[in-house]
Amino acid sequence: MEQFIMKGGNPLVGEVNISGAKNAALGILAAAIMTDDDVVIDNLPDVRDINVLLEAIEEIGASVERIDRHTVRINAKNIKEVSVDDEFIRRIRASYYFIGALLGKYKSAEVPLPGGCNIGSRPIDQHLKGFRALGAKVEIVKGSVVAHAIDLVGSHIYLDVVSVGATINIMMAAALAEGQTILENVAKEPHVVDVANFLNSMGANIKGAGTDVIRIKGVDRLHGTEYSVIPDQIEAGTFMCAAAATRGDVMVKNVIPKHLEAISAKLAEIGCEIIEFDDAVRVVGKPKQRPTNIKTLPYPGFPTDMQPQMAVTLALADGTSMVTESIFENRFKYVDELARMGGNIKVEGNVAVIDGVPGFTGAQVEAPDLRAGAALVIAGLAAEGYTVVDEIGYIQRGYECFEEKLQALGAVIEKVDSDKALRKFQLRVG
């Protein structure tokens, strides 16, 4: 059972390089099977979700060649199977991208319903609505989505709720449909734009990604490409909050500052110094930081995936902050864990009222999901004494080399897998 153990109290100082965006890479990898030619993708993050997806791609008959840790070559000409199912794929949310990819290319798909973190309901009704509008017959049979079409035909589709997954999924299927598809009320997230750019580099004709309306002219076939995944805005935001919470000074490199504007603006509001460069953002935390209010919204609003990390930062500010979660209903599970460390947060419905405290004290806590796990690590680094975070499998799903990157910034943190290793760490660190 792996855990993180850390001794807090050191400001994080130095530079950190941000990995490729997990959420963009998942969509891009699924889309890579839509051609019979070679596709080379680099800047892939080496995290569990990506590796599971690559296994699933191999499972259905595509060849997957690891060129290096962050680069992969995929060739899908020998796919024999439009049914994706192995025990792992059920655990990740992005399994549903295979529906759009397989339906687009083979007009048929059978994919298990998705898993992932338990942070609230993630209905896929908008995905299914889109596939049906393109002319597919879609049913849910024994926990799997089964979709078939004789031909996919372009259509005018209005999403009832803004959904990143549905936008990407329908966009993939529509890229190989006949005629024009107009998608309205779509998600504008950077990773939606990245998947669209990737499909276009394969010969798709997609315009308007990043706006409210995406127009897709179907093409007959897609060709091979080489493509680099965008940097991960949530990983970048996590290190920015870690710098603020520990009152450190961190240069966050290999980022697109535009994607981080909502996070940068909030950190500036609480009194941090934010300096933007072409491909980096420097965050300098201040001894006294002010409270602020946050509401999570679809992009370009404040990302729900940054809400726990920001809440931890605000829990150490001087005054009362309010955080409103408008995307996922179970996103406050970390609050009880933070209370063990001295955090003072009250949750009513989808609003958390945070009364700032002068400091946290170390405790044993458990990661309830991916982002909350990262937030508890930040709390542990800002706390006095030792903190142990359990269930770090969640964190490893979305952060590459998390503890190594923190160590390079001066954090006293280690990954351990036994009580003996835990005690050894405590003796060594003192």
Characterise this structure:
It is a single chain. With 430 residues, this protein is α+β, with helices and mostly antiparallel strands. The protein folds into 2 domains: 3-19 and 231-429, Alpha-beta prism (UDP-n-acetylglucosamine1-carboxyvinyl-transferase, Chain), CATH 3.65.10; 22-228, UDP-n-acetylglucosamine1-carboxyvinyl-transferase, Chain (Alpha-beta prism). It contains 14 helices and 23 strands. The protein has helices at 22-31, 48-59, 97-106, 125-133, 164-175, 190-201, 233-245, 261-269, 307-314, 334-340, 370-382, 393-396, 402-408, 419-429; strands spanning 3-7, 13-17, 38-42, 63-68, 71-75, 108-112, 137-141, 144-148, 156-158, 180-184, 205-207, 213-217, 225-228, 249-253, 273-276, 280-284, 293-295, 320-324, 344-348, 351-355, 364-366, 386-390, 412-416. The strands form 6 sheets. Strands 21-22-1-23 form a 4-stranded mixed β-sheet, with helices on both faces. Strand 9 (156-158), helix 5 (164-175) and strand 10 form a beta-alpha-beta unit. Helix 1 (22-31) runs parallel beside helix 3, helix 3 runs parallel beside helix 5 (164-175) and helix 9 (307-314) runs parallel beside helix 11. It is globular, with a radius of gyration of 22 Å. It starts with a strand and ends with a helix.
